[in-house]
Amino acid sequence: MKVKNICCIGAGYVGGPTMAIIAQKSPEITVTVVDINEKRIAAWNDPDVEQIPIYEPGLSEVVAEARGRNLFFSTDVDAAIDAADMIFISVNTPTKTYGMGKGMAADLKYIELCARQIARVAKNDKIIVEKSTLPVRTAEALKRILDNTGNGVNFQILSNPEFLAEGTAVTDLHKPDRVLIGGDLDSEKGREAIQALVDVYAHWVTPDNILTTNVWSSELSKLTANAFLAQRVSSINAMSELCEVTEADVQEVAKAIGMDSRIGPKFLKASVGFGGSCFQKDILNLVYIAKSFGLNEVADYWEQVILMNDHQKRRFAAKIVKTLFNTVSGKKIALLGWAFKKDTNDTRESAAIYVADYLLNEQAEIVVYDPKVTQEQILADLDYLGTRSEEENRKLITVVNTAEAACAEAHAVAVMTEWDEFKTLDWEAIYTHMLKPAFLFDGRRLLDKEALTDLGFEFYAIGS
Ligand code: UDX
Ligand code: ADP
């Protein structure tokens, strides 16, 4: 079976970039990305390709190449479902905020709505691909909804988790470490569906890097990969605190252990805490699944990764307060960076949100500069926490357009995101315009401690 028409439901950080690359690499396949969010689709269709709603290095070039040729963005979900022979589901699966599993389980309501819509609209056989990260056995739920409410057509369900990291999405998609496809290996139709998706990726991925497994292994592999990655960050962050009290340096420790080929050098960067839409959500999900099977030790083991991360964010904020003579009340503190990592405008679960919230509770005045995040987003992130009224947030937080403006007259500066441009700021000028002593807190170990101390800064970096 050759796929000619792909539909992707969900034009977010996963669906948008993934479909752009599939379209770029497979000119004979028509790819339509649909979303119920009209504003988002309008932005994907903006004639000025730099205005697409997701900032990712290299993405606008890919969209410019494929859009209008075989890549389309639309709000007409029904029409795209009807026309497609393969449908990717890339809708969001946030942590539940109500009822059973509140704060832990993944909320599958958007997935279920998609399944019901597909079942209602589909008039011919379709391959359904789970792209969103989902709890193990979601495919089974999808299949039951589709088979019981559909128009008697055949649905094959595949799990094809996305491993791209934001900020490097285009390179990750162009050269994936592996593509994982889970499906029903025991049936002829299942194997055909798997092969159809393998053929799509084979446009640019070598066969050795395409793994096929059963659906459950594929679903669980995604949660496991994210849990292991997050665990590495929490592990090095735990060591960063120990380094600070023992005069060891976490960067030196990371280098020393990373040269052990069994450990490896990547993902050992101590930080103010991991963020992003996946790590916390997926681990909570894992913890919930383990608990629901009565595996309490397994659940506790993974939950500790989250507890350590929360501790790291709080500890960084508390360090600022303690260093500023135990009070930040009425003091101006500049936060450089709001995104959860560099090269993205995504702020979901960003450490900056929690550090800002902590400092606002201590009555600080916060000024934020981030090269890619809008004021609207920053305020929305704080409002979402619900710690104080929207008016108060707007009174206490200012968003500015340059790092220099953020730091002028500040008592302290905190680096929250590792944007490259922060390395080459005119730190001498910034020092001159700050209140003294000028405190600088490097939550990303981005800056040169010696050079900045020489300029006169009171410098603190995580882990030394
Ligand atoms: C992650 C996974 O890497 C990816 O495979 C999956 O598909 C989605 O979740 P993402 O969240 O986009 O990707 O970015 P990632 O590079 O993993 O960073 C996550 C967080 O960990 C960021 O806040 C980052 O700053 C932090 N981090 C990462 C560290 O603090 N130290 C490190 O050494 C690495
Ligand atoms: P991710 O990081 O997983 O891509 P996002 O939140 O960036 O998550 O994107 C998910 C997108 O899915 C959102 O733009 C949302 O509007 C869209 N979406 C959710 N439910 C539906 C649905 N039933 N039909 C179409 N689009 C949907």
Automatic annotation (TrEMBL):
<feature type="domain" description="UDP-glucose/GDP-mannose dehydrogenase C-terminal">
    <location>
        <begin position="334"/>
        <end position="449"/>
    </location>
</feature>
<feature type="binding site">
    <location>
        <begin position="132"/>
        <end position="133"/>
    </location>
    <ligand>
        <name>NAD(+)</name>
    </ligand>
</feature>
<feature type="binding site">
    <location>
        <begin position="10"/>
        <end position="15"/>
    </location>
    <ligand>
        <name>NAD(+)</name>
    </ligand>
</feature>
<feature type="active site" description="Nucleophile">
    <location>
        <position position="278"/>
    </location>
</feature>
<comment type="pathway">
    <text>Nucleotide-sugar biosynthesis; UDP-alpha-D-glucuronate biosynthesis; UDP-alpha-D-glucuronate from UDP-alpha-D-glucose: step 1/1.</text>
</comment>
<comment type="similarity">
    <text>Belongs to the UDP-glucose/GDP-mannose dehydrogenase family.</text>
</comment>
<dbReference type="Pfam" id="PF03720">
    <property type="entry name" value="UDPG_MGDP_dh_C"/>
</dbReference>
<dbReference type="InterPro" id="IPR017476">
    <property type="entry name" value="UDP-Glc/GDP-Man"/>
</dbReference>
<dbReference type="InterPro" id="IPR014027">
    <property type="entry name" value="UDP-Glc/GDP-Man_DH_C"/>
</dbReference>
<feature type="binding site">
    <location>
        <begin position="162"/>
        <end position="166"/>
    </location>
    <ligand>
        <name>substrate</name>
    </ligand>
</feature>
<dbReference type="InterPro" id="IPR008927">
    <property type="entry name" value="6-PGluconate_DH-like_C_sf"/>
</dbReference>
<dbReference type="Pfam" id="PF03721">
    <property type="entry name" value="UDPG_MGDP_dh_N"/>
</dbReference>
<dbReference type="InterPro" id="IPR036220">
    <property type="entry name" value="UDP-Glc/GDP-Man_DH_C_sf"/>
</dbReference>
<feature type="binding site">
    <location>
        <begin position="269"/>
        <end position="275"/>
    </location>
    <ligand>
        <name>substrate</name>
    </ligand>
</feature>
<feature type="binding site">
    <location>
        <begin position="222"/>
        <end position="226"/>
    </location>
    <ligand>
        <name>substrate</name>
    </ligand>
</feature>
<dbReference type="InterPro" id="IPR014026">
    <property type="entry name" value="UDP-Glc/GDP-Man_DH_dimer"/>
</dbReference>
<feature type="binding site">
    <location>
        <begin position="91"/>
        <end position="95"/>
    </location>
    <ligand>
        <name>NAD(+)</name>
    </ligand>
</feature>
<dbReference type="GO" id="GO:0006024">
    <property type="term" value="P:glycosaminoglycan biosynthetic process"/>
</dbReference>
<dbReference type="InterPro" id="IPR001732">
    <property type="entry name" value="UDP-Glc/GDP-Man_DH_N"/>
</dbReference>
<feature type="binding site">
    <location>
        <position position="262"/>
    </location>
    <ligand>
        <name>substrate</name>
    </ligand>
</feature>
<feature type="binding site">
    <location>
        <position position="444"/>
    </location>
    <ligand>
        <name>substrate</name>
    </ligand>
</feature>
<feature type="binding site">
    <location>
        <begin position="340"/>
        <end position="341"/>
    </location>
    <ligand>
        <name>substrate</name>
    </ligand>
</feature>
<protein>
    <recommendedName>
        <fullName>UDP-glucose 6-dehydrogenase</fullName>
        <ecNumber>1.1.1.22</ecNumber>
    </recommendedName>
</protein>
<dbReference type="Pfam" id="PF00984">
    <property type="entry name" value="UDPG_MGDP_dh"/>
</dbReference>
<feature type="binding site">
    <location>
        <position position="40"/>
    </location>
    <ligand>
        <name>NAD(+)</name>
    </ligand>
</feature>
<feature type="binding site">
    <location>
        <position position="35"/>
    </location>
    <ligand>
        <name>NAD(+)</name>
    </ligand>
</feature>
<dbReference type="GO" id="GO:0051287">
    <property type="term" value="F:NAD binding"/>
</dbReference>
<dbReference type="InterPro" id="IPR036291">
    <property type="entry name" value="NAD(P)-bd_dom_sf"/>
</dbReference>
<feature type="binding site">
    <location>
        <begin position="278"/>
        <end position="281"/>
    </location>
    <ligand>
        <name>NAD(+)</name>
    </ligand>
</feature>
<dbReference type="InterPro" id="IPR028356">
    <property type="entry name" value="UDPglc_DH_euk"/>
</dbReference>
<dbReference type="GO" id="GO:0003979">
    <property type="term" value="F:UDP-glucose 6-dehydrogenase activity"/>
</dbReference>
<keyword id="KW-0560">Oxidoreductase</keyword>
<keyword id="KW-0520">NAD</keyword>
<dbReference type="GO" id="GO:0006065">
    <property type="term" value="P:UDP-glucuronate biosynthetic process"/>
</dbReference>
<comment type="function">
    <text>Catalyzes the conversion of UDP-glucose into UDP-glucuronate, one of the precursors of teichuronic acid.</text>
</comment>
<feature type="binding site">
    <location>
        <position position="348"/>
    </location>
    <ligand>
        <name>NAD(+)</name>
    </ligand>
</feature>
<feature type="binding site">
    <location>
        <position position="166"/>
    </location>
    <ligand>
        <name>NAD(+)</name>
    </ligand>
</feature>
